[in-house]
From TrEMBL:
<feature type="binding site">
    <location>
        <position position="26"/>
    </location>
    <ligand>
        <name>Zn(2+)</name>
    </ligand>
</feature>
<dbReference type="InterPro" id="IPR007178">
    <property type="entry name" value="Spt4_arch"/>
</dbReference>
<dbReference type="GO" id="GO:0006355">
    <property type="term" value="P:regulation of DNA-templated transcription"/>
</dbReference>
<dbReference type="InterPro" id="IPR029040">
    <property type="entry name" value="RPABC4/Spt4"/>
</dbReference>
<comment type="similarity">
    <text>Belongs to the archaeal Spt4 family.</text>
</comment>
<feature type="domain" description="Spt4/RpoE2 zinc finger">
    <location>
        <begin position="8"/>
        <end position="66"/>
    </location>
</feature>
<comment type="function">
    <text>Stimulates transcription elongation.</text>
</comment>
<dbReference type="InterPro" id="IPR038589">
    <property type="entry name" value="Spt4_dom_sf"/>
</dbReference>
<keyword id="KW-0804">Transcription</keyword>
<protein>
    <recommendedName>
        <fullName>Transcription elongation factor Spt4</fullName>
    </recommendedName>
</protein>
<comment type="subunit">
    <text>Heterodimer composed of Spt4 and Spt5.</text>
</comment>
<keyword id="KW-0862">Zinc</keyword>
<feature type="binding site">
    <location>
        <position position="11"/>
    </location>
    <ligand>
        <name>Zn(2+)</name>
    </ligand>
</feature>
<dbReference type="Pfam" id="PF06093">
    <property type="entry name" value="Spt4"/>
</dbReference>
<dbReference type="GO" id="GO:0008270">
    <property type="term" value="F:zinc ion binding"/>
</dbReference>
<feature type="binding site">
    <location>
        <position position="23"/>
    </location>
    <ligand>
        <name>Zn(2+)</name>
    </ligand>
</feature>
<keyword id="KW-0805">Transcription regulation</keyword>
């Protein structure tokens, strides 16, 4: 996903970057329009950073939610 696209938002619960009205990972509708930093997780089972952040599914995540 390209940062700044029209429908892009960040889930305040799990920090996943989504394009709809609800998070496809946790189901939350508590979404923020802005964020800082981008973390792309390709293989969460092999990533130490994903383990530290408790990320279990590949995808795009925000580092900081505003």
């Amino acid at each position: 996903m390209k940062q700044g696209s029209v429908k892009e938002r960040v889930c305040r619960n799990c920090k996943r970057i989504v394009s709809g009205d609800a998070c496809d990972l946790c189901g939350s509708t508590n979404l923020a329009p802005t964020y800082q930093g981008l973390l792309i997780v390709l293989k969460p089972e092999l990533s130490e950073i994903a383990a530290l952040l408790n990320i279990k599914k590949e995808g795009y995540y925000a580092v900081k939610v505003k």
